[in-house]
Records
---
Amino acid sequence: MKYIMGIDQGTTGTRAMIFDADVNIIAQAYSEFTQYFPKDGWVEHDAEEIWETTQAMMKKALAEAGITASAIAAIGITNQRETTVFWDKSTGKPACRAMVWQDRRTLPICEELEATDGPAMVERTGMIIVPNDAATKIRWFLDNDETIRQGVAEGRLIYGTMDTWLIWKLSGGAAHVTDHSNNSVTLLQNARTLEYDEKTLELLDIPREILPKICGSSEIYAQTTPEAFFGASVPIAGICGDQQSAAFGQGCMEPGTAKNTYGTGSFIVMNTGGQYVPPSDGVFSPVLWTIDGKTDYGLEGMADVSGAVIQWLRDGLGIIEESGDAEKLALTVEDSMGVYFIPAFVGLGAPYYDSYARGTIFGITRGTTKAHIARAALESMAFQVRDAFKVMEKKSGMKLAKLRADGGGANSDFMLQFQADILGVPVERPVITETTCLGAVYLAGLAVGYWDSVESLSQFWKVEKRFEPQISEEKREELIAGWNAAIDHAKGWLKR
């Protein structure tokens, strides 16, 4: 029997999962890796550690499944998007730490681009000009790291995001590739031609030769080397950025369907089909995936800090010992008692995109307890999703009837119930919540004929629990008004 392996290379850890043809999870393995914060607003990863962690998790998953690497029919990769690294194409060694998508050091470059070519660049690329963009990270490295500048000038170094890096390592350097979904959020890709945007490359003075080849999301890119994949040569056949992959895994394959992933950040994605809707009002327009030459577009809004706020309650504030304790603590009080938590640790995401905002807690009184703060923190995840959700409805002209939820935060019944309450529409949690990895598995399986068609995959999506709105419209509007007031105070904090 053959299986499909998915690699979910996330922001805080890497997961390997093995599925059979009926989409049963045969085995999985997960490990966190080191987060580096060398300066305020800087976030870095060690790409070599990520590769080693990925290899270790693949090996662990195979051992748990009791199979050899040769039993894998194909590998699909989904990944944290925009995290940027350079490496030596001869040695395969990273030339620097990877600059993580959350990193904010490129803000001055973004502001310069906005002033120079802002609206036109956004319209061409489908991406909002924010520090997340890999294009601005490349420019920062070329401006500020002599090792990178010299290595690029000598033709030794090449660039990639984490999908590109892992495929390079798995293929022994045979493939330097990315896909439309990952490339669409870098600011490097033209949204209409799906090729590199020459105007952006010119403005940022980025050499074309360091960039990976752009491919579809479901095709065979290369074979693993026996050295990289435990003695087996297996097709690497699916690539998709984590949020687009989660939408595919959630079955959001028709226009108007939407999902949110509650991970380190929150990412709400709506499928707009073959229609490219240029970005505006704080949401951007990524390619969701390209399969057999057919491209689906979407709208996306993101909050940089979502589940990370729970990590802060644990590691920073010390009011919980484990992430699951946040919900238990929140349920010890009836409401947040007027407390609002704005988790703008690195700024505000959609629809505000304010890099000068900072985290704030409003409404504290003498009666406020750690339970109220924990509850407000969980509620903040839902408020941020609502903000993006409503903008998408306005832009698309579609009234979204429900939201599909996945990611670690989706395991919280309390949070999903509050999400349904504050949205005013049902929220559905699937049986398999690791839909990010599942999307990549589907794409890889389609490329090698493991599954027949995109349509055939819909049978595998199943609801584990559905959350219906339970509060009145009046109460909903009251809560939203308080949130909006708190947001207004948090905006532009560093400029005050």
---
Amino acid sequence: MISSLRGQVQSVGLDHAVVEVGGVGFAVQATPSTLASLRRGEEAHLATTLVVREDSLTLFGFGDVEARELFGLLQTVSGIGPRLALATLAVLEPDKLRHALAEGNITVLTQVPGIGKKGAERLIIELRDKVGALPAAHSPVANGVVREHVVEALLGLGFPAKSAESTVDSVLADNPEQSTSAVLRRALATLGRK
């Protein structure tokens, strides 16, 4: 299983990117928001999962581990394959998806193309209890992952390690239930004022 990739982005398409790792270019299917965070020629770090089919090997990439875990969980539901699971994560952020499943919100789930009322009901029945088992965005483990990703991104942008770490810590102290992208935006805004 290929659980992560770190390498230089060779190209970014509408539904995939090519990341070169050790001289090998890996085509990685991803959501539009994940693809938008990648820049050609820059280093990327993606949480990944390899889907093996009789006629193909497809690598799916995510901006964080939580999205990858939800992607795998969605596919445990009958009728949800990797493409529909990826479409679900493209339409609904992990936190929004988790809340919709926990609250039984059919309206939110049917916003995803390919998921009708019956599909949404099946998702809720099968995943309502399981989404609570995944680490929540505000848990210490998830906070550590968010902190690590944001500090790494700031270091990649050339900020000194000490100021990157202290800024991220202060942003997380204000509100520990933020997504990686929200913490990064706030940290960049804070560092831009200094």
---
Amino acid sequence: MKRLDPDKLFVEFRPCVTKTEPLLGRRYTLTHSDATAELFLTVGLAYAYDKVTTMRDEVLAEWRINHGSPYLFVYVFVDGQYGSNQSTIRDTIFRRELPLALEAIMYGDQCLFKACPELDLAPIFIRFDSTIPRYNRYEYWGTPIDYQ
């Protein structure tokens, strides 16, 4: 991978979240600036909706447990602020940029991965949310180690 420029990633840890815990309930909000190409990762117990713009091009993620095993659930809103009119373009952009977004999450929360190396092999599932059936999908996207 290695598309990420660490100098352009800014990470904020919200109250009640440290660099290594908790795992359950740990949520990520990744936003960006088109003008500067900077990425902003907020790690907290709630999504940082105060960082979300009307463009709705953020990436939201959280750790969940299924049958005793952790997995990373990622959510993107394909339709965006203009509804389904821009869904084709937004789906293409999300698919192109998601590897960078996942890399930013893994890099920005690297202390968690060092403390819990078993998370390197946890599955990542992406929920593409759209009113158009062909874009409304739930997909497996590998494991965190694929994006480190």
